[in-house]
Structures are given as structure tokens and as C-alpha cells.
Amino acid sequence: MNINLMDFQLKAISDLMEAMEQDKRDIILKSATGSGKTIILTHFMYEYFKSNRNIVFIWLTPGKGDLEEQSKDKMDKYVNGSQTKLLSDVMTSGFTENDACFINWEKLTKKGNNALKDSERINFLEYIEKAHTENLSFKIIIDESHQNDTIKSEEILKYFKTDKIIRTSATPKGYTDAIVIDIKEEDVIAQGLIKRLLIINEDFDQNIHTSSQIAYLLNKAILKQQELYTALREQKTEINPLIIVQVPNKNDVLLDEVEYYFESQGITYDNGKLAVWLSNKKENLDDIEDNAASPIALIIKQAVATGWDCPRAYILVKLRDNMDETFEIQTIGRIRRMPEAKHYENDLLDSSYLYTLDDKFTEGVKQFLGKDALNAEKLPLKPEHKKFTLTSEQRSGLDATRDSFQVLSAITEYFVKTYNVTPFSSTVPGKAGTNAKINKTKLETAGYVFNNEIIDTTKSGTLHTLTNAAKTIAAMNDINIHSPLDTHKHGRQFHHETAGIGLKISLEYDQILTIIRKLFDKTNPCDNKILSLDIREIYSFTLNNSDRLRHDIQNSMSTELTFLVEKPSKITTTKFTFPQTLIFTYDGNGKNQGIMSKNVYQGYRNSAEPRSSSEKDFERFCEQCKAVDWIYKNGDKGPEYFSIVYTDNFSKQRSFYPDYIISLHGEIWIIETKGGFDHSGNSEDIDRFSRIKFHFLTGFLIRYHLKGGFVRKDNKSGDLCICMNNYSDDIFDETWHLLNDVFNQKNTGNYFIAAEPDPPYGT
User: Fold this and answer.
1) The pLDDT of residue 279
2) Which of 96, 128, 201, 290 has its CA 20 to 30 A from that of 237?
3) At 409, which helix (H) or strand (E)?
4) pTM for this structure?
5) pLDDT for residue 151
6) What does the alpha-carbon distance between residue 176 and residue 154 come to, in Å, rounded to a whole number?
7) Coil/strand/helix, residue 485
8) Which long-range contacts (CB under 8 A, 24 or more apart) does 472-480 make?
9) pLDDT exceeds cutoff 90 at 225
10) Inter-axis angle of helices 509-520 and 491-504, to 10 degrees?
11) What values do phi and psi take at 232, rounded to 5?
12) Residue-averaged pLDDT of the chain
């Protein structure tokens, strides 16, 4: 079974491949809950096997469960041609090249474990030694590494004599001399695998008066479960959202109270709606992970067993007693996965919920999750804005993969613009030869290496102190090491480097290889060829210039080109209205909890989060600006929010959600905020698609007779500035105007040119 890897997963694989080439032994894969860690690592192993010889991977899993079998099954299922083994297989046949061996730590380290008797242990070590004599190299993956940092574990690792250990954990600690690959939660959220927010104590009164804290919390949870259940049915799903109730250890009194309250609400063990998972008591746990399982509540006493996933779990009730308990992030992880690995584009269903009166636990959650753990309340739309409408665009959903021809065209155009090369047709021999020679000279002048040998570099010099060692080493003399090209010997390296280039732009190996050959291989027909190299030269050119090629091809996705599609085809338009209610998230500890009266929602606070500094500055400006009638903060994903469709240079449709819709002097404006300009005027905008988005925003404004632009802050003066015509990354360009001047002039047409915009990258 083949699966389409997501962009962040491809990037993680690329980062792992690069880390394996570095000097450091330890690699930390910090993987957010729901990121598909097993999928990432199994595909990484498969890619690494194809690029390297004589490799055996040992995947070590924790606990008494069958995680090693689960991980093996996933690799067998999702990676065609994988060569996997369990410990029992190793004890039968030993190790061979390209083995991926999944082994439970405890079967190797726990004294008296019958899974590996003393005689078998000796045989296991003999198999390791035999592998070494056959020149096999072991690479280690330690799953949930924070659970296996013991002396016994280190002793086992020594037998493998490995030079690379990949440790995976959501909470890695104590590794100062390691390469850290951090899979950002926002990337996982953006792909719909985990819920967007963890909402803490939604709609709690400022002062709670109750005779029973347990009844108060469980009642909130049951009402939320019912609300979620109804909303999920509207999505045509059979998902039964689950409440997890965590009671303190060694407190049977609270456990009895929880069971009694649930029974009073018709939620019992007998009718199958209540489940319990304790060391000495287990009820209704069969298939509880299934989305349509009967239990609506599960009682636990500590963090659920490592590796247990129940994506239908939405709500956590954390009860407290007078004892201090360690904050367990694994418990929070149980309610963060999306039940169908996708967002429903519904704030209610795309969030998870925590109800607790435990201040220490709440603070632990906030510290760990940061902006993803916020206070929340439901705000109503003010009546005067209920009839507002605006045209919104949505993608067709038909271009899930890159357009290879468009990718080829974009890369060619980038090389033309950047290096002034002249593309040629391989079917015109005379002209092809001349242009190929000229193009080679231009690329060589720009730093590209043309050499039939493979050139590696190292440094030579003297290091007196460790202070600023990196800078000192970087300034040392370069030493070039030349090796004759051997297509057999360097074949795996060529595959590795080519695959790495493709991973940066979400292309499979075969796709990027075809593009490289069309651009540079003289035997591959193409009308926009740049070089004319034979197969050996293709190998050496790619290997000697892999970093530069990776950089240039990645930049070609979003840089200034001349052929940008003016308007995406096959898009749909819908009528956008402001959502009738807003799940408003905010920082309850923020000093300023004042109400922003111009927002379209009643009760919108100054402490709104998450917000970028640019968004906060703009919201404060609008609140104070007399010319602004009202302001709406747009969402960042989903059909219920306002969006404009644009295409990148590889012809992939993307959705752009401008930050704000405002009314200015009775006119509708659409505003996008971006990173500002530093004190020297340098751009701090990290969005490489800004110029393309600006162009499509401008086209949209003209089509629908609206106004708007991009707003950025000049940090030197502290002023907000707006660009409404041709986009520029230069704050001193005349296209940037002071926002205060524009908004406070009633005739804003003096600034805004209501005509077709210039093409973003020339004509």
C-alpha cells in the first residue's frame, strides 16, 4: 500500500538523511503527537537503504506491549518491498543487508525475561558479531527514548558498535551534543492530523460556586460530548467522541464519586457507556479505540500506556487532590489527534477540551503547548453584521500532485533569470552545442562545479580555543579531495542527493530525476534544456553541486518569474458570511483584558491569542482609528473563512486567507499583515510566497471593486505602512505609505489604483 507523504513528513525524512551524514552520533527526532512518526521513520529507512550499502536498522521499542509488532506491521503495510524482522526472526536467521529489525527493549534488558534466555542472549550477541564480520553496519532507532535511558540500555547499544542513534520523543531531555530535528506542531496541525487548539475550561464563570467540583467538571464534559456528538453526526460520521477522566493516584474516594456521578447521568459500566482502565480494574475496553465504540467516558489513574492511540478522544477531565503529581504530557496527547486524520473545518470539532481546577496541571499544559493551549469562550456575532456577504474562492482539489511540466518550466525560468542562461532545444544540434557551451561557462562563473571527478571538501587550519569555534573553522582553508567517478560506487550517493533535492519540493525520486535529465542530459529530448551532459557528467554534476541545485530548485517554486498564471482555473466561488459564533481563544493571564469594541464579535478581548506581533499592532491601530467602522479577524484554514486561491510556480493551487476584513469610511478593505522591516530597512517577512499572494489579492480586489493591501511595520519609526499597488520588499519604495495617512484620508483613491495590476514578475 502506497501513501502520499505530507510536506512536513518529506522534510523530516530529508533532515534525517542530512543528519546521517554529520559527525554527531546522536540524532533527536522531536515528533509532535500525531505527526506520523512511524511513517516518517519507516520511509526514511527505506530511502537510506537505497542510498547506502551493508546497512541494518535496529528499531527498539519500550514497554510490555506489542509496539515492535505494530511498527513492523506499519512498515510492511506502507513501504513496498520492505525487509522487516522481529527478534524471533533474528534468532532464527541472524542479520542481513537491508534488514529493519523491530525489537522490544525489555526482551534484551529485563532480568529473568523468558523471551530471551541466557543461552539465547549469547546467540543474539553472536549474531551481532557475525554481522560485524560480514561488514554490516548497525544504525539504531530508539522509540520513546526518554523511557529507556538506563545503564542496561547503554550496555546493549555498545554491542552494536553503532555510529548513529536516532532517538524519538515528544519530550527529549539531556542531549546537548546531538542534532535535533524538530517536527513543528503547527506543521502537523496545518495538515489536519491533530487538533488546532487545546481549549482550557471553556465558558467557566469568573467565580465558581459549587457543592461538588467533580459534578461541575463532569457536567461540563458531558454537555461538550453531546455537542460534539451532534456536530459529528452533521458531518455524516459515526464517531462517538470520548471523555477521558484522570483521577489522582491512590484516591479511591474520588474514583467512587466519579462513578457515582456518571451513574446518575445514565452512564454506567452495565450499559457500556462507561469504561475504566486501572491496574486492578478494567471494564469495556474491547475496541474502545474504534471511532464508533459505545463508551463515552473512560476513567484512568495515570498517563495511558505509551503508544495507545484513541483519536476519537476529545475531552480530558483532570481531577485533583492535595498531593503533588507530575505533569504528564502523554495524557494531553491522547485528546489531540483528529479522529479521521483531517480537519472538519469547524472550530468546535477541530479543537480538544480540558476541564480541570488543578492550577499546577493547567500551568504545565500551557508551558508545554504554549500558544496551542489557551483560555476560550464562545462569542456571538453582533446583530448588525449578520447580513454581511463577500465572494470567497476555494480550490478545486484536483491538483494534489505537482505538475511536472510546470515544475520544469519554473526551474528553467529561474535559471534564466538568475544566471542569464539561454534555454535550447535538443533537437537543433548546432544551436544546442553553442548554447550549452555558453550556459556552462555562465554557470561555472556563478560557482557551479564542472569536473569529471567527485570533489569532497574538508578544512585545514589551527584552532586555539573553543570560543567561536564554528566561525574559526569556517574561515580555515578548504581542502578538496578528488575521487574518480565510479557510477557503480557513486550510484547510491547519486540517488541519495537526487532524492534529497526532490524532498525539498515534495517530489518523488522518479519525478525529480526526470526533470534533472530533461534539463541537463543531452540524450533526453527537451525544448528548454540548459546543459548537454552525458550520463557520467550528470552524475558528477549532481554530486558536486547538490547543495546549490537544492537551493536553486527550491527557490524556483516561489521566486519572481514571468509566466505566473494570472488566475487559477477550476476554482469555485462561494458566499462568505461571518460565522454566527466564534470560539475565541485568549491569554487569560494577559494584563490587558479590555474589550475591543470595533470587532464584529461581542466581547473580543485585547488579549486575543494566537496573534503575531503584526496582527496585534494592526488590531490596536484599528481600535484607535476613527475612520475604521469595524474589523473582522479571518481564520487561517477552512471553507467557513474567507479565502483567495492562488498558484505557485509549480502550478499547485493554494489557498490564501487574508488576515482581516475591515470597513473603512463605509468601504470594504481586505488586509494581510506581514513581518516588518528592521531598523536598517531589511525585510523580516518569512513568507516566500508574499509577492505571489499580493498579486492575486490585487487581482481579486479589482474584480470585486474592493480595496486593500499588505500592512507591515517600519521598526525604525514604529509606524505601520501599507502597500496597495506594485509590491516591494523595500520600505523606502514609493509604493509604501503610512497607514495612518491612508486610513484617515476619506479619498483613499489617491493611493489606490483601481486598474488591472502589473504582472508580478514583469511581462
Assistant:
1) 77
2) 201
3) helix 404-419
4) 0.59
5) 47
6) 17
7) coil
8) 480/455, 480/456
9) yes
10) 100
11) -70, -35
12) 81
696, containing H or E segment: helix 690-703
Q: Any idea which residue has 462568505 for its cell?
A: 576
* Percent of the chain with pLDDT strictly greater than 70: 81
Nearest alpha-carbon partner for 751 in 709, 701, 714: 709
Task: Please name the helix (run of DSSP H) or strand (run of DSSP E) that holds residue 142, with its range, or none.
Answer: strand 137-142
Query: How many helices and strands in the chain, by DSSP H and E?
Result: 22, 28
CB atoms within 10 A of CB 290: 13
User: Looking up cell 529473568, which residue turns up?
Assistant: 112
Of 579, 563, 568, the residue nearest 393 (C-alpha): 568
State the pLDDT at residue 624.
Answer: 92
What angle, 0 to 180 degrees and rounded to 10, lies between the N-to-C axes of helices 535-544 and 509-520? 110
Q: What are phi and psi of 458, to 5 degrees?
A: -140, -175
Report in angstroms the alpha-carbon separations of 217 from 245, 258, 302: 10, 10, 18
Q: For residue 655, give the 3-state DSSP assignment.
A: strand
Buried/exposed code over 621-631 (b: 16+ C-beta within 10 A; e: otherwise): bbbebebbebb
Q: 78: Cβ–Cβ under 8 A, 6 or more apart, which residues? A: 1, 2, 3, 39, 42, 43
C-alpha cell, 624:
484607535
10 Å CB burial of residue 648 (0-12, 13-18, 19+) is: buried
C-alpha cell at 39: 511513517
Cell of 593: 483584558
Per-residue b or e along 86-112, where b marks 16 or more CB atoms closer than 10 Å to that residue's CB:
bbeebeeebbebbbbbbbbbbbbbeee
Would you state the cell numbers that stand for residue 349, as one nine-digit string?
A: 470539532
